[in-house]
Design a protein that fits this description.
With about 575 residues, the protein is an alpha+beta fold. It contains 20 helices and 16 strands. Helix 4 packs antiparallel against helix 6 and helix 16 packs antiparallel against helix 17.
Length: about 575
């Protein structure tokens, strides 16, 4: 065993992780070429046993190509929940050794064991202890690289697979590195490899002895400086237990190329929901939304847009993703083989400032989606989804019909709650019939009394989880809807009666006011002379006599004036 003094960095990498877990659970697969991946021709290989790798099968390879390369391979559908649970147990083993653990994926992690040397011994002994614990507790193997830096430790773990241990002493780092091909360095991909090959640089030693200025001129300042430092074994990065996420996203490869914009938007909706759930689970909000579009010709396009404020709401991410898709410049009917949604510019959700528009409500989409997250955590990820995704032909996963741990769902029944806009619009019941597996999303079928009681139990469980959400679910029942309409009709009728009664009272009050006013005027008006009253009555009763009387009075007046004039003369 090489000298491990000063080699406090360990890189632990599980051997063919997904395939090893499947072989552990199905011993009859031991010794056979096992490939874990999608069953369709568009699927990719997620993991391959070393028997399959002998035929050239590698991770990320199309399943169709892997099937041609290894016709006798046993293809196994992935079980991501199981892999995540096993990974959690493996990481717990690492945590018993040192708290300084930096997970890179489900199946690999960096460990800094400098603080565990006095308790567990030298780094090589700690690596053997970790390997024994993983085999004893999980029944799968891992490979461990021990080195003074993260970069060298990762190379060492890859060079000692499967089920190996390799220690690169501090004094032998350059000797070990310089014998490796140039492709072993981080950041050397296909294009960078072509540039290095054009310069005649085949090994790490060739890169190390190339002038820095040449590397920077050919590869760029950052890339050239990076490769030069790695070629001399310089890696100043430390093991960071909690590495902040830089971006979160999801993507989907279609079984067949699709060109229907409506289907593409539905896929964007599904991916936006997955991305938003990941954001909320990590406590982040994102500022930038990106869309990845891969054509049938394998040409890949990416479009991104920065929002005015960070968000973790699927509705806002989906709206931005659709806008990016529509403005991508694709020809009408262009067929896509892959669609992806990714968000970046992550900030803590607690410090994100959400901007409210005039038509927004204080409690809206964010609260509704968080309530949906709580329901999904209890009843399964597929228990709740947007209504636009309900009409798909794909049924739920086999484990989607199983209630989550601690759930109060009745056995064999899974609730599918669908919402559209701001309200829940339907609740459907689906089950796997005895003797055959199937999923039906057909028309509404009358439920038996037993099934109705089961659904009522589900609604009660939802109501206990979130009363507001439970009320929305209950409101989707047609009977509840009818009762609500009936109650609204009763309220409207009651209001009509009240308004009619108020109008009658108002009219009576007006009549009473007029009568009272006339009586008041009769009391306060002064009495007229009897003659005047009689004349007034006569005038009213005999209009012709009134005119003759007036004419007689005028004639008498003239007669008196004439007589007075004669007297004066």
């Amino acid at each position: 065993m090489a000298d491990d003094a000063g080699c406090s960095i360990l890189h632990v990498d599980m051997d063919a992780f997904y395939a090893s877990v499947e072989i552990r659970d199905r011993p009859e697969l031991a010794g056979q070429p096992v490939i874990v991946g999608g069953a369709s021709g568009r699927g990719v290989v997620l993991s391959a046993s070393y028997q399959a790798r002998a035929f050239g099968v590698r991770s990320a390879m199309p399943v169709a190509r892997a099937r041609r390369m290894c016709p006798r391979a046993v293809f196994v559908a992935p079980r991501h929940r199981l892999y995540a649970a096993v990974s959690k147990e493996v990481m717990a083993i690492f945590g018993t050794v040192t708290p300084t653990v930096e997970p890179l994926a489900l199946d690999e992690a960096f460990l800094d064991v400098s603080g565990a040397l006095r308790r567990l011994g030298p780094p090589a002994a700690i690596a053997r202890h970790i390997r024994a614990q993983v085999v004893g507790q999980q029944g799968i193997t891992c490979s461990v690289g021990v080195a003074p830096t993260k970069f060298v430790a990762k190379i060492a773990s890859a060079r000692c697979k499967p089920d190996g241990l390799l220690v690169v002493p501090r004094a032998g780092v350059l000797e070990y590195l310089h014998a490796l091909p140039a492709s072993a360095l981080w950041g050397v991909g296909e294009r960078t490899g072509e540039v290095l090959a054009r310069l005649g640089l085949r090994t790490v030693a060739d890169i190390a002895h190339t002038p820095l200025a040449t590397l920077q001129r050919e590869l760029g300042m950052a890339q050239g400086s990076h490769l030069a430092a790695l070629a001399w074994g310089r890696d100043e990065r430390r093991v960071t237990p909690h590495v902040p996420e830089k971006s979160i996203g999801a993507e989907e490869t279609f079984a067949a190329d699709i060109g229907d914009p409506q289907r593409i938007r539905r896929e964007l909706l599904k991916l936006s929901g997955r991305t938003a759930r990941s954001l909320r689970a990590g406590g982040y909000a994102a500022r930038t939304v990106s869309v990845k579009l891969r054509l049938a010709s394998f040409k890949t396009m990416t479009r991104s847009r920065t929002l005015a404020y960070p968000t973790d709401v699927a509705r806002e991410i989906y709206a931005t993703a659709c806008a990016l898709y529509e403005s991508s410049g694709l020809d009408r009917g262009a067929r896509l083989r892959l669609v992806g949604v990714r968000v970046s510019g992550l900030v803590p959700a607690s410090g994100a400032n959400a901007q409210l528009t005039f038509d927004d409500r204080p409690v809206g989409w964010r609260e509704a989606e968080r309530a949906a997250d709580r329901i999904a955590s209890r009843f399964g990820a597929r228990a709740i989804r947007p209504a636009a995704l309900v009409e798909g032909t794909d049924g739920p996963d086999e484990d989607a019909l199983l209630a989550a741990r601690g759930s109060t769902l009745p056995s064999g029944v899974s609730t599918l709650v669908s919402w559209k806009l701001n309200r829940v619009c339907e609740v459907k019941d689906h089950r796997t019939r005895a003797g055959r597996k199937g999923f039906s999303m057909g028309g509404v079928v009358p439920l038996s009394e037993h099934e109705q009681r089961q659904l009522e139990q589900i609604e009660q469980a939802l109501y206990r989880e979130d009363p507001k959400f439970g009320r929305l679910v209950r409101s989707s029942d047609p009977r509840v809807h009818y009762k609500r309409k009936l109650a609204q009709a009763r309220v409207v009728t009651h209001h009509v009666y009240l308004e009619a009664a108020a109008a009658v009272v108002l009219l009576l009050s007006l009549v009473w006011a007029v009568i009272s006013w006339r009586r008041h005027l009769a009391r306060v008006r002064p009495a007229k002379p009897a003659g005047a009253t009689a004349r007034a009555k006569g005038q009213v009763r005999h209009p012709g006599q009134t005119r003759r009387a007036r004419m007689m009075e005028r004639m008498e007046e003239r007669w008196r004036r004439r007589q007075e004039g004669d007297r004066r003369m």
